[in-house]
């Protein structure tokens, strides 16, 4: 038992190389995370271990070293750059007599501070409650007692069971509210699909300059700062493209290594903008120091949310800061053997390379439209309704057998996701579809949309 301090963010940071070496920028990233949460680093404990210690994670000897440092620097907080089990977190708190926060708890705290929109606050609260639900016991032994006495008899619950029940009710309520918001987002996506407005989403590691690039492309004026997770709430803006129709550009939350699963689950509705996009701009810090690791971390999260098959252009940002790194700082466009754009090198701060990026986006979107003809039977009414929600309708004529002769258009990326689907609907579409050229004129499109 100990009294938790009501204020003070003097923190000792703990980072171990468990079963291997740490990335070169790992310590700097941990310090940036702590500063983003409002903590001040007053001490650092490092080391190596083959496997985590089941009791303290860091081992008994390192735990005693940590205890001595906490007392010496009068720290009120210990931040461990690893995931701790509830038992490990509780054991460390009892030994150190101060708060202990693991990496997941730290990131959740940053998100809680940065959330501004109603949806963002709901998502963060849901993630925090899921994280908290396994950590209710902490150091408070009275939670194991049953309530008793006059006016309190009856439920037969311990305080811990009561709190878990209340947490479960709150989590269910948050899920219900987020489900309603997800329906609204889905309606907006379907409206854009019906108007054949393509969506381009910015993705990338946190603090690589996505918001700066977003402002440069759209003049949106969203917050941009040299700090981790400066952007939390997603923003959508119109993106004018040269020689092509306009698109919608989405700025999304940055990813990071060991992103808490609670956050990925809670932000699934927001990340749906990424999964349903027609093109991803994967923004990368052009500095080669930890570029490969950051790219892999982002690809891991994209695979987790089902966006690994979405076409993408790699955008190497911050070329203005490449002096002395051995990398060519010239803004340029790299193409593959087929002439398709693979990488764009630019500086979102100075604006160099922005025009080639816009041309590349327009080029990828303009050539990525599929036209298909489908002969639907009378039993395909649900499929026809789905096509009206998710595709451009070029022709919709009834047949003599009670079905429909339809011609549809769909962005290439969206069509590939349908073709790769394993559900009955996608298999039925693939069985019926036959490629057809785009029509010279589409007089019935307005009527089809009116339906």
Summarize the structure in words:
There is one protein chain. The protein is an alpha/beta fold. The chain has 15 helices and 15 strands. Helix 4 packs antiparallel against helix 5 and helix 5 (118-132) packs antiparallel against helix 6 (159-194). The chain is globular and about 85 Å long. The model is unreliable at 1-7, 138-146 and 441-451 (pLDDT under 50).
Record field, number of beta strands? 15
Multimerization status: single chain
Report the β-strand fraction as a percent range. 15-25%
List the total number of helices.
15
Physical arrangement of strands within the biggest beta sheet: 6-7-5-8-9-11-10
Please give the largest β-sheet.
7 strands, mixed
Could you tell me how far the N terminus lies from the C terminus, measured between alpha carbons in angstroms? 67 Å
Give the helix level as a range of percent: 40-55%
Following the backbone from N to C, one meets helices and strands in this order, namely EHEHEHEHHHEHEEHHEHEEEHEHEEHHEH
By helix and strand content, what is the structural category?
A: alpha/beta
| Rg calculated over all Cα atoms | 26 Å
Shape: globular
Task: Give the overall pLDDT as a whole number.
Answer: 79
Q: Which residues form runs of ≥5 with pLDDT under 50?
A: 1-7, 138-146, 441-451
Main location: cytoplasm
Function: GTPase that associates with the 50S ribosomal subunit and may have a role during protein synthesis or ribosome biogenesis.
Subcellular location: Cytoplasm
Family: Belongs to the TRAFAC class OBG-HflX-like GTPase superfamily. HflX GTPase family.
